[in-house]
Specification:
Mean pLDDT: 92
Order of helices and strands: HHHHHEHEHEEEEHHHHHHHH
Structural class: alpha+beta
Largest sheet: 4 strands, mixed
Oligomer: single chain
CATH class of the domain at 84-215: Alpha Beta
Strand content: 5-15%
Strand order of the largest sheet: 1-2-4-3
Number of helices: 15
Distance between the termini: 28 Å
CATH topology of the domain at 84-215: Beta Polymerase, domain 2
Shape: globular
């Protein structure tokens, strides 16, 4: 990501639009030479609507064509989220009628809890957490709501059903029905049966309907792991996930039990420590969370660009040395995020041992696939 574009996106990635630093944002925006690239990057990172809101609130001069594009992105997501909100209300109402427990997680809840308006938080699907023991009743309920569902054969062995689909006014609405917030085999696990403490309540729509999501500490823990899980040698980091974590921590800093976070969910502290260098945390949050800050990591927001993210055939223009460097020496920012290291911990072991061993593991996987001894990833 080019430096000028990255600086503008960092300025515009805090859900608290009122905290926008107009002077800094204007200075950084004046250095942008390719506004089409900025619009494209903003949409790829899921922060297009936030960029529009920040630029507009700060009164930053933007080329007319670029402003039309970014406003179009905002309006598109606002419309889509209105449809998502309607469907979510139908799901919550139907489940309540049937006595089915559910928690709404990720964007469908966060868009109401921490964003000035739901349309500022793009969503591809609605994610809900239900009990695996309710799977048959849940599937029947969503079918009654007009979703097409695809039920696995035999007992539930995965974390979720395949996405249930509904088309409303020509828009695809996906419903992700989870039994566990994490993939099988992942280091963390959380089922609805594991819920402890009070869930957070929020009101989607305008009917006074109450929905529930994870509690303060569990939400931050889930978001931190979700960010790490999707920052891999295959998947790209997205700024919207960082915005979710920082926005939630800022919004509920007074309510969060930071001692519980430090003792039970320390990964949250590590991730916030690192994200501070992309989306600066407020002084009250740094103090309340006792979040340690090391030096600024190198190459903030730069992504992994080596193999196996991109096929070798697609990288020949770099030459073998270039491919090897991108593969074995990824940006420090990415490496810390990938391993949940924060900004204050030493990175030596992960740079020289853990990361090369991970790449060797994928080389072994590829060889076994080529020999027909293992299924493709």
């Amino acid at each position: 990501m080019k430096d000028a574009i990255a600086e503008v996106l960092k300025c515009c990635s805090n859900p608290t639009v009122a905290r926008s630093d107009s002077a800094t944002l204007s200075r950084r925006a004046a250095l942008v030479g390719d506004w089409d690239a900025l619009v494209s990057q903003a949409e790829a990172h899921g922060v297009g609507p936030l960029v529009y809101a920040h630029l507009r609130a700060a009164g930053v001069p933007v080329p007319d064509d670029a402003m039309r594009q970014i406003r179009g992105i905002y309006l598109q997501h606002r419309y889509r989220n209105q449809l998502h909100e309607k469907v979510l209300c139908d799901v919550v109402t139907r489940f309540a009628t049937l006595g089915l427990d559910l928690l709404v997680v990720k964007g469908a809840a966060l868009s109401h809890l921490i964003y000035p308006e739901p349309g500022l938080r793009p969503m591809s699907d609605i994610d809900i957490l239900v009990k695996a023991s309710d799977s048959d009743r849940v599937e029947a309920a969503v079918r009654e709501l007009g979703f097409r569902t695809f039920s696995p054969k035999g007992p539930v062995v995965k974390k979720s059903l395949p996405t249930a689909l509904l088309f409303l006014d020509g828009v695809r609405i996906g419903l992700e029905i989870h039994y566990d917030l994490f993939e099988p085999g992942y280091a963390a696990s959380f089922r609805l049966e594991d819920m402890r403490g009070m869930p957070l309540r929020f009101a989607p729509g305008k009917l006074g309907l109450a929905a529930q999501t994870l509690g303060y500490e569990q939400t931050l823990w889930h978001l931190a792991h979700h960010l790490m899980f999707h920052t891999t040698v295959f998947d790209s980091f997205r700024l919207i996930w960082a915005a979710d974590i920082v926005g939630f921590a800022e919004r509920f800093a007074v309510d969060i039990d930071w001692e519980l976070i430090r003792t039970r969910y320390p990964i949250v502290i590590e991730i916030l420590s690192l994200l501070h260098f992309a989306i600066p945390l407020s002084e009250p949050l740094l103090e309340r969370g006792a979040i340690p800050l090391g030096r600024a990591p190198g190459q903030v927001l730069e992504d992994f660009e080596g193999w196996p993210r991109a096929a070798m055939a697609d990288q020949w223009e770099k030459g073998l040395l270039g491919i090897a460097e991108d593969t074995l020496s990824p940006p420090e920012w990415w490496l810390r995020l990938h391993h949940g290291l924060g900004s204050a911990r030493d990175v030596f072991w992960y740079r020289w041992i853990a990361h090369p061993m991970e790449i060797l593991g994928w080389v072994k996987q590829l060889l076994l696939e080529r020999l027909g001894l293992r299924s493709p990833r």
